[in-house]
Amino acid sequence: MPDDFKTRLKIAKSKIKKKLDNDVEKRGSFMGNAFKLGTELVAAVTVGTIIGFILDSWFDTKPWLIVIFFFLGAAAGMLNVIRAANRMQRED
Amino acid sequence: MASNPMQQFAVHRIGPEIKIAGIDLSFTNASLFMVISAFIILLFLFLGSKEKKIIPDKIQLIAEISYSFVAKMISDTAGSKAKPYFPFIFSLFMFVLFCNMVGMLPYSFTVTSHIIVTLIMAVFIFVAVTIIGFLKHGFKYLSIFVPSGVPVVLLPLITIIEIISYLSRPVSLSVRLFANMMAGHTMLKVFGGFVVSLGILGGWLPLSFSVALTGLEILVAFLQAYVFAILTCIYLNDALNLHH
Question: Positive or negative, the Cα torsion across A41, A43, A45, A47?
Answer without folding.
Answer: negative
